From TrEMBL:
InterPro entries reported in the protein's UniProt record: LRR_5, LRR_dom_sf
Signal peptide: 1-17
Protein's name according to its UniProt entry: Uncharacterized protein
Keywords: Leucine-rich repeat, Repeat, Signal
Recorded superkingdom: Eukaryota
Amino acid sequence: MFVTLVILCVFASPAVSQLTFRNVMVTCDSEQPLDDDIPFGTIVTTNKLKPHLPSTDCFKIAIQYATIHTLYQDALSDITNANYLFLENDNIEEIEPGAFKNVKLKEALSLQSNNIKEIRRGVFNDVQVPVLILSYNLIAYIDYHAFDNMTLKSIHLDHNKLPRINPFWFRHTPKLIKLNFQHNLIEQVPEFAFQMEKLNAPRIDLSHNQIREVSGDAFANTKRLDFLSLAFNRLESLERNWLKGVKVNVLDISHNRLRCLRDELAGPFSTNFIDKNPWSCGCLQDMKSKESTVFGSIVADEAFRRCNI
Ligand SMILES: *[C@@H]1O[C@H](CO)[C@@H](O)[C@H](O)[C@H]1NC(C)=O
């Protein structure tokens, strides 16, 4: 009897569990709702959302505060007529490759505030969208090829559990110009950290991590950085020439453990935010004397006050 039950369970569970959406509320907002226009909303139980959406274009499709553990293959596939697709606060833990097959969005795909632990290859490769928001999850692992061939311009991976940066992640994501890694567990910035093809002038935010070390070659393949933040980390030093040949617009290394730097700030025409470090006053004075010649402008109101500079 027991054996029979076990066998039944084993065979019965996969078929049932393939259903991604069970009694889930889906909304579709049109771009300019008319005064008496009631927004479209319906409750669905299905493995594929697309056939349940209205035939007119949706500006924003949203499923929020639902309970969805796994996005199975085809769950969102073939959605091509929306600006935004939001799957937020839905308790999503896993995404199968193919869940977003042939998805094309004009603005953004957000999976913010779920419990996603890893991003596998084949989950997002087929998606055409400028902005991907994966903030507030539990992401600790991303496959080397997870973002290959995407048309992404901006990726938000903040508030996750990433322990490191893999230099291969963005090698085939040529349009990427904004990367947000705030509030992860990154300890080090490796050499050639961001190998994007034809780098424009990306904005990279690595603030609020546990970074102690930045490789001297971290940005060796980078020509320009519009913005780089390493604020709120554990830096005690920076390699000489770590920004050699890189034109930086704004550098933020405030809130670290730096006592002295010699040539390690960004060059002329840049702005360097360096306050809230335990600067040695003699060293700070030296840095100040190179402001606007060797370095760009230096912002450190509190440290300058403390050192009477
Ligand atoms: C990206 O595109 C290339 C060329 O079409 C293809 O060989 C490769 O498998 C694609 N990568 C992924 C992860 O889909």
